[in-house]
Design brief:
globular; mainly alpha; 0% strand
């Protein structure tokens, strides 16, 4: 019963979004309405396919009534889990998905970045989801991918939380 309610709610919400809101507006509304669960969903899907990053919401955390450090933890964990999904999809589906998920241009640039910088490419690479997919496609060692992903997400999270804290003090 509860799963059918959830499916009905999600499909209704998606219909509303498509008709009335941009994806970025939807992400903001999801976080306002669902709080940390909304942060998790945005962070998880950001690492796989959708273009709205969770990091800017960390800057607005106090305006959203959420603790920036909890958002940071939820954001890092959700990004890591989504990154693992992207990695394994890239690993197993490989080049067949490049044209469907990534543009050939993004793939070529990411591959060149990997060839030049290795693990460091994951730490500095953006867009992040491209780096996750390409890591799997190129069969980058999973343990190195996870370590680099963790470092990358923690650095990005701390920067956004501190910027948000600084600007919220000013304004």
């Amino acid at each position: 019963m509860s799963s059918s309610i959830l499916i009905y709610s999600v499909s209704g919400l998606l219909g509303f979004i498509i008709e009335n809101m941009s994806l970025q507006d939807y992400a903001l509304e999801a976080i306002k309405h669902y709080g940390y669960v909304g942060v998790f969903v945005v962070g998880f899907t950001q690492s796989i396919i959708q273009p709205v990053p969770v990091l800017p919401f960390m800057m607005m955390s106090q305006k959203l009534g959420l603790n920036p450090w909890i958002i940071g933890i939820v954001g890092v964990v959700s990004n890591m889990l989504g990154a693992m999904v992207s990695y394994w999809l890239g690993f197993f589906a490989g080049d067949r998905l490049v044209g469907k998920v990534l543009s050939k241009n993004h793939y070529i640039k990411a591959e060149a970045l990997f060839n030049r910088y290795g693990t460091f490419a994951i730490i500095i690479g953006e867009p992040y989801k491209v780096m996750c997919w390409v890591s799997g496609i190129l069969k980058f060692p999973f343990h190195r991918f996870i370590i680099a992903t963790f470092i990358s997400r923690v650095i990005h999270t701390l920067i956004y939380i501190l910027i948000g804290h600084f600007f919220q003090k000013i304004f």
